[in-house]
Amino acid sequence: MGLGPVWKLRAPSVAATATELRAEATHSAAERAPTDDTAVTRVANIAMPMDWDELAATVAACRQCRLCEVRKQAVLGVGDGRADWLFVGEGPGAEEDERGEPFVGQAGQLLDNMLTSIGLQRGRDVYIANAVKCRPPENRTPDPDELAACRPYLAQQIALIQPKLIVAMGRPAAQTLLQTEVKISTARTKVHDYEGIPVIVTYHPAYLLRSPLDKAKAWEDLCFMRRTMRQLKANQ
Ligand code: URA
Ligand code: SF4
Q1: Which of 59, 96, 133, when mutated, tests ligand 2's pocket best, judged by the most ligand atoms within 8 Å of its CB?
Q2: Is 196 among the domain residues?
Q3: How many C-beta neighbours within 10 Å does residue 176 have?
Q4: Do the beta carbons of residue 206 and residue 109 sit within 8 Å?
Q5: Closest ligand, as measured to the CA of 92
Q6: Is the pTM of this model over 0.85?
Q7: Ligand 1 pocket, 136 CB below 6 A?
Q8: Would residue 145 count as lying in a domain?
Q9: What is the domain range of residue 172?
Q10: Residue 12 Cα, ligand 2 centroid: separation in angstroms?
Q11: Contact 64, 45 (CB under 8 A)
Q12: Is residue 2 part of a domain?
């Protein structure tokens, strides 16, 4: 999948909040040589959203990577803007691209069932987003440079939501959040960290539709999430 070089790109990984994004953009022009990697330039070019309206408008008009060329619309996310739970998938598919909402196709039905199984409901204390906001052609896995280009938007969403727990579904979500190579089978059942926020890694629902034998493990992961959230709330 050619994931090697991207995890070294520096700018999007450190820019978590609008303030940091702005600082990054201000400093990058003055301090960096023109040979610096393109991700730095991208971050400098992204308008600095401060609230949900600005973020939504910026993403809707975004042309920071080639995925903008074939999308019908960018899909920012759905749910409670101050939810305790943030679920992050890979990228919009055909139905999501059509409707402008994440996880509304078959994988979305499974995700809804998974949420229900631990007492959650789309939109109620849950926010659902994707690692990239525009549909990759043929539903291919997003390329590392596309994930890097879109990462500041996910970072901005996290800064606005301030979730107690982030659930990364599948490798692209896990890798863009954790900025490291991830194998789901070894990363699951542990609590990782995104800028001080706990992250749990699990299988992507579309993968589970293809590999139903792993649904038992996904159920274990759901129980682990629920337990972790209880502990987080108890420790408040
Ligand atoms: N798969 C994803 O990763 N995200 C969606 O929104 C739909 C399917
Ligand atoms: Fe912009 Fe993200 Fe869409 Fe690429 S995928 S065009 S970075 S919103």
Answers
A1: 133
A2: yes
A3: 29
A4: no
A5: 1
A6: no
A7: no
A8: yes
A9: 18-234
A10: 13
A11: yes
A12: no
